[in-house]
Each structure stands twice: as structure tokens, then as C-alpha cells.
Amino acid sequence: NAGVTQTPKFRILKIGQSMTLQCTQDMNHNYMYWYRQDPGMGLKLIYYSVGAGITDKGEVPNGYNVSRSTTEDFPLRLELAAPSQTSVYFCASSYGTGGSGYTFGSGTRLTVV
Amino acid sequence: TQLLEQSPQFLSIQEGENLTVYCNSSSVFSSLQWYRQEPGEGPVLLVTVVTGGEVKKLKRLTFQFGDARKDSSLHITAAQPGDTGLYLCAGPVFSGGYNKLIFGAGTRLAVHP
Fold it and tell me: Cβ contact (<8 Å) for A43 and B88?
């Protein structure tokens, strides 16, 4: 089982460039999430989706956008990269909300220079 | 704002030692989850505790949920190098009509042979 697949694994962007972080899951989960992980700060929720066509902001959404056109895919878009967006990004999915365990992808390490 | 505080932040021990790490909050949670994250990978769910006072065992790992459901602990008996990793606790927070997980900053454990 593939679970949650994220691409790319690593990326270096210049300030002002744009990119899309890809996330796909094959577990037919309705709920999907994007988190960023900074050293010593834990995981912070950027955006989440409760089903195809439905997305909402999390704790730290500024500078990011998402879309959910299918159950499987939940891409994260950075429009104008800034050094503050240097982080490790994790996509996750779950069968239910809250009390259900999340399945995470292996992450994308992004550096903005 | 609900927060999860984990302690200690870092722990370096020898193989065979016992250890306990803690996850504390001033808020009541309906459940708490523990994840382990290895370098270059996403967090992997270890256990969910739901009932106040609940104790769950996973081989050499013992998880306890506080009676008041504000804290949890993870005890590892006879630690092995394979236990090395970042241990994260997480709990559901209700906002925007849905529960989403918030995460503590984690305890980074290093077990030396």
C-alpha cells in the first residue's frame, strides 16, 4: 500500500518563485491536511480539506493556497516564496476527524534562498 | 488557545535504560495520540488513548492518559537503538466545524549502543 505520497522530496526555491507541492493518497480518506514542521516548533496546520471541493484555513495559512478537485489529491501552492517558508512540509490524511489517527507522507524539505 | 507541552525536549540515554517522556496541557482533551518520527520520514501513529486513567502497552512502550485527560506519558522499558526518534503527542481541537490535531513540539530521543 502506497498510503500518502508526497513529491518532490527536496526543493530549493529563489525568493519570489512559485511551486506546487504534490500530495496523493490511495486510502479513500475524505480528510486531508497540510502541516509544516520547523525545528523545535512541532507541526503547524496550514490548510485542511474535509472532502473534494471543500477546503479551509488552518493555523498558518498565509502565503499558501490549496485545492481539492478529487478525493485522492491535495496539492499545496506557494505563490511568492519567502525565506520564512523554509520548512519541512507534511501532507496527511485520515478516515475521520480528530480522534482518528493520521497517515503522513514522508515530507518535502523546502529551502527558500 | 490549547497547547501541548512536551518534556524533556531532548533525551540521550544508553541502551537498556528506562525512560519516561511527558505531554501536558492546561486543557482537557477527548483523546491524545502518540507518534514516532524518524529522520527524513513523516510521523507514524503509535497509539491513541481515550479514557482518563487508561494505560496501553505496545511491547516495551507503556502509554498512560491522565485521570483528568489533561496529560499523558510514554514510558519505554529497556530502550534500544531502534527506539531513537522524535516522539510527538497530539490532540484534537474543535474549530471551523471539525476536529483537527494539534501537536506538541516533541521529545527527541537518542539511544546509544
Answer: yes
The per-residue pLDDT for range A9-45, each reduced to its tens digit, is 999 999 999 999 999 999 999 999 999 999 888 899 9
Residues of B in contact with A45 (CB under 8 A): 100-102
Residue A64, domain extent: 4-100
In a domain, A109, yes or no: no
B86 vs chain A: nearest CA distance in angstroms? 10
Side-chain half-sphere of B10: how many Cα atoms within 13 Å?
Answer: 3
From CA A49, how far away is CA A30, in angstroms rounded?
8
Find chain A residues with C-beta within 8 A of B107's C-beta: none
**Cα–Cα dist B9/B32, whole Å:** 19
